[in-house]
Amino acid sequence: MNQSNVFRLGKNEISKDCEPVFLPDIGTFFNQDMALAMSMVDQLADSGVTTIKGEILHSPDICLKDSGDEVYWGHDSEKLKQENYRALIERKVVSLDAYEKLFQYCKSKGMDVVVSVYDFEGAAFAKRLEMSAIKIASSNITHQPLIEYVAKLDTPVILDTGHSTIEEIARAIDWLHDAGAQNVIIEHSPLGPPNGVELHNLRFMTTLGDTFGIPYGLSDHHAGEEMLYAAVSLGAAVIEKGVCPDNLGDEQDAAHALPISRVEDVVKKIRNIYLAMGDGVRDLPRNREKYRSRMGLIAKKDLIAGDIITVDTVTFAFPAKGIEVENWRKVQGRALTCSVKAGDVISWQNLHDFTG
Q: Please, what are the domains in the chain?
């Protein structure tokens, strides 16, 4: 797909020229508490969010029982936390029935839904519920069977590149296109805390878009908000950010999540920055109001007929009621035809044999 083309992600157009779609990802943060999940949806809807990002994690069997530990940054304790990976997955698994109620509730609030999937059953479920896009998580960029299965569902695909090499990314893009995917968005996904901002390399996002000729976006893992705004200025089509309940504590991924009470302000700033970027063209109507502060020529001292216009005889002030400063080369060295008092405007009528 050529990046100048436009396709739709739910109600939103996706291209480098369209307003970026903010994807608040609540998927990992409600921990099977469906009442909390519904409440988060309400808060996001009230904040002006048009699209919800979630996941379909319905089986713990995507993780082996002897998988070892997951290590993540605890932003409250400011130290690394360690948790058995299978146990972590088990406390986040939600039934397909519960997911269906949650996503239908999102739709009832007028919001589109984008979901990450981890197996064929989850992908088929996403297709049945008419999700606006299906995301391939960065961990699954080498999962050829899943990528090809999703590509054949005729649903927009978001491909997260995470820690992948260019070769792995190119191969996954080929798998998607060869299997028939038409609408693909590629995401840059920098490392999260405690890694430093110098590792974000946001320009790689545009490299991905230019290299593969498709819309690009950011899956933000910075502890703050500023990477979201930088992504807008770099032309991101989608901007994904984890959103968690306020004061969540040392939960996995909470170190780079946005407290839900901040979402409304962030959404407004994203829109303001997009609108402020403009189209790069200056189009000034002829009947526009001109600057009052552009200057004209003023007598620096009392002048008489025959005095010459130089920087020693004139000064400048606004508004330009007489000769505008842009005409300096035309009048410099000309002689006055009459007297002009100090501080008075010098007009074309004051010049010898010169009508302007």
A: 10-277 (3.20.20.70), 284-356 (3.90.1210.10)
